[in-house]
Design a protein that fits this description.
The protein is mainly alpha-helical. Helices cover 74% and strands 0% of the residues. The protein has a domain of 102 residues. The chain has six helices and no strands. The model has no long low-confidence stretch (mean pLDDT 87). It holds the Pfam family KdpA.
């Protein structure tokens, strides 16, 4: 469970830390607002959030309006892209090794079958819950605030 949790939380952690540091460090924030962000306010926040989300998910594209050619964004997005590619690989390999070392356990009344609707529902529900708790607060600060403005 620890390895699976670390794998699941790697990408959101990189995205939120990168975006947060971009606005928390005063010199970087000033550089972002004056140089990189084409649209100020909540749309600018969304631009930076999308840049880090795209980098952490191995794409590296940018939202229209951001100029990511600054020293901070070049280095931060590069580090996030590197970590977003290789850290999950380490956790998946460690999880595979851990599962390979385990002995087979016979099926009993307490076994949860993975081909039944209960497991499928729990998996989908957990995925939606983790995703919502990770990204909804940030989305509420950016795109939703811009839409309600």
């Amino acid at each position: 469970m620890k390895l699976a949790s670390l794998y699941i939380l790697t990408t959101p952690t990189l995205v939120l830390l990168g975006t947060g540091l971009s606005f928390a460090i005063p010199a970087v924030k000033t550089d972002l607002v004056t140089t990189s962000i084409g649209n100020p306010g909540t749309h600018g926040f969304s631009e930076v959030l999308y840049a880090f989300t795209s980098a952490a998910n191995n794409n590296g594209s940018a939202f229209a309006g951001i100029t990511a050619n600054t020293s901070w964004l070049n280095s931060a997005l590069g580090v996030v892209m590197f970590l977003g590619r290789f850290v999950p690989i380490v956790f998946v390999l460690a999880l595979a090794g851990s599962l390979a070392q385990q002995d087979r356990v016979p099926v009993t009344a307490g076994t949860l079958p993975t081909h039944r609707p209960l497991f499928i529902g729990m998996l989908i529900g957990t995925t939606l819950l983790v995703t919502a708790l990770t990204y909804f607060p940030v989305l509420a600060l950016g795109p939703l605030a811009e839409g309600l403005k």
